[in-house]
Amino acid sequence: MNKNKILKVTSIMLLAVTMGMTLASCGNKVDQETSANTSVSTELAEKTESESAENSKEISAEDSKNEGTMTESSDVNEEYYPITYTTYNHAKEAVEVTIEKEPTKVVAVYQNSIETLLALGLEDKIVAAAGLDHKVKPEFEEAFSGVNYLNDWQPNKETVVMLEPDFILSWYSYFGEKRLGEVDYFHDNNIGTYMALNSGAVSPRTLQNECDDILNIGKIFNVNDKAKAIVDKIQSRVAEVVESEKDKEQKSTMIIEFYTDKISGYGATSLGGDMVVKLGAKLMNPEGNDLGVEDIIALDPESIFVVYYNGGKRSDEEAELGALNNVMDNEALANISAVKNKKVYAIPLGEMYASGVRTIDGIERFAKGIYE
Amino acid sequence: MNKKVLNLKSVFGLVIVGLCVAVFIAAIHAITIGTVDIPMRKVMDVILAKWNPENYPAKYSNGTLHDVIWLIRMPRVVLACFVGMALAVVGVVMQAIVKNPLADPYILGISSGASLGATMAILLGVGTIMGGNFVGIMAFIGAFLISIGVLMISNIGGKSNSVRLLLAGMALSSVCSSLSSLVIFFAKDKEGIKSITYWLMGSLAGAKWSQISFIVPFIVVGVLFFLSQYRTLNLMLLGDDVSITLGKNLYNYRRVYLIITSLMMGLVVYCSGMIGFVGLIIPHIGRMIFGTDHKRLIIISGLLGALFMILADTLSRTILPHTELPIGILISAVGAPCFIWLLCKKSYGFGGNKS
To answer: A234 to each of A158, A230, A254, A346, how far by Cα in Å?
Structure first.
């Protein structure tokens, strides 16, 4: 009986040890293979390049009128690419990425990624999009209707790899270990990545970062002029406001968001705070701590912006009214100047947090609220 | 009487073999399904092409199919298998160490230590020099240090026993969670707080072979070690007084066991975050099937844990199209009702006689 026991235990132990050993050897094999992978992926890239060359030939044959312009534009492309741009990895280190040709199969995740591509007229380059917080801006709806939209969540790595994209545009968090994984894998496989600067890649969050994002994406897709136009509009609007308020007394303001159990403040290191400061106003809570009602009374800003997020359950008007009522219905706040002068405004989160092309809307809303 | 004992043994052997086969089938099946279902043949081809690439077309050794099977799905399934095994076995051991059926692998400071480590990594950027998976590494450090801290505190001013361990665990947990809250309060980083919540839900996504070849030896050795310690574990359920009377002082055993479980759990936390419930219910299910003898319990729990985890992970990544439901949510939602059903259906005991 005892012998039996010992035999059994030893056999189980042996089994487990062999299992472990096999696995360990598997691991080694993979390491060898990753080095082999790089050469393979260049091969693949060559293949797709020749494929796309064939495609363009077909198109030009079909449409003989455009033949001249087609070759011209591809000439321009040859001169333009390869280009090198800077993005970040999950350790927040800057990474230089070189892409050999214009990305044509883009996976875009989250509102600003999708909308920036649409604003730059790149909707036909999107192979899949996902993760909208709310509908795209009305002017993009038509362009967006043709886009392959997966759903409101973040696609998993498997889905993304299966789509065989050549570019991924998203947020810092999406390249985390548990989501898509480190950017190196994609770069090694000739897939470009770009993460919005204000999505956590760099600190502090600034208006300039939003502009840089748009310019960078313009650079990557060879639509520099369109990108520059969007950024110019933002920057000239800011300059215009600053210019018109130059000789007047500085206005004070504050950006807050109401939660069920606290009031959260947006400080100078948040995008909203930076927008306000760039517009020449004084941010009353630059530290961006959580606030009590008493703090708001003590700081007494001339205007207050209440941030709201509308996930789509309510209409925008309802959501806006709900946000405003947090201040307007609070008897303790009835005597602060912002309430007395009716200078309490609601601002959607999407216009002042990783805002992309909505940045201009945020700027307009802040400028109007603070100065009018 | 003798005949009955033999029968039980052969039944046990059959169940073990059955479970091993089930784990294997579940694992292979898990590799075939996902965003896109891949036929079993192709999966086999990709795996076999690893050993003799020259006999297979190039698309099996590189490209999308290869990446999805070999770099995404397989490491994940293997990781699920070993994480499930580790959680279940550590759950068994932890319940014996603190002599409490409510104990789970995270009870003695692991969860709060890991949260603190992850919070510091995500919000304060501590440990970013350790590369892309710095959050996991910080969580491992937090979990390991705090559980060693629990062990040390329980020894101050008297020898530790199960009650002192539990109390020290509670105390340090509160300290850690208040520190985490403090960091969250001062960080003012919404995106970061979201990442922490997500991270704490636990997930097996992002499994890598390099990670697996590092943690699996520890888990296998740990499981084998506890398998060899079944007599002491049985004694632990009877309490310190009884075991001293029987000539065994549990004090040192408890210390060694705790160091080993902390290491195992730290590694589990490092690669999968926190996956609750498995370490609590699988040991109980194991006891319902074959009683409380740790010799059987550890084997059966380890295999059940592996099987359960593979199934849960497969479900978590296929239940919603293109995206994943965090496995922690799924396990509680599926596991709790099953557990209640079992509890109602079978008479159940924790140590000693069945009640």
So the answer is: 38, 7, 21, 20
Domains of chain A: 71-233 (3.40.50.1980), 245-371 (3.40.50.1980)
- ipTM surpasses 0.85: no
A150 touches B at CB < 8 Å: yes
- Identify whether B62 is part of a domain: yes
**B91 found inside a domain:** yes
For residue B34, what is the domain's CATH number? 1.10.3470.10
Structure tokens at B107: 């009870």
What domain count does chain B have?
1
Contact A157 B198 (CB under 8 A): no
Least confident window among A17-21, B71-75, B140-144: A17-21
Question: Is B1 contained in some domain?
Answer: no
B202: alpha, beta or left, given left = phi > 0 and alpha = psi -120 to 50? left
* Secondary structure class of A195 (helix, strand, coil): strand
Q: Which of residues 144-173 of B touch A (CB under 8 A)?
A: none
- For the whole model, what pTM was predicted? 0.76
Domain-embedded: residue B6: no
Question: Using a CB-CB distance cutoff of 8 angstroms, which residues of chain B are in contact with residue A30?
Answer: 70-71, 209-210
- E strand or H helix at B143: helix B134-155
Chain pair A-B, CB pairs under 8 angstroms: 143
Of B50, B185, B224, the CB nearest to A16: B224
Between residues B345 and B202, which one has the greater pLDDT? B202
Interface test with B, best of A22, A48, A158, A283 (most B CBs within 10 A): A158
Return averaged pLDDT per consecutive 10 residues of chain A, 372 residues in all.
52 49 42 39 40 41 41 56 90 89 92 93 92 88 91 86 91 85 88 91 90 94 93 93 88 90 87 93 87 89 90 77 88 89 91 91 93 85
Hey, are the CB atoms on B324 and A150 less than 8 Å from each other? no
pLDDT in tens, B295-341: 999 999 999 999 999 999 999 888 888 888 888 888 888 777 877 87
Domain that holds residue B37: 11-345
Instruction: Look at A41 and B62 and tell me if their CB atoms are within 8 Å.
Output: yes
Question: Do residues A44 and A34 lie in contact, with contact meaning Cβ atoms separated by under 8 Å?
Answer: no
Nearest 5 degrees, angle CA A20-CA B286-CA A24? 5
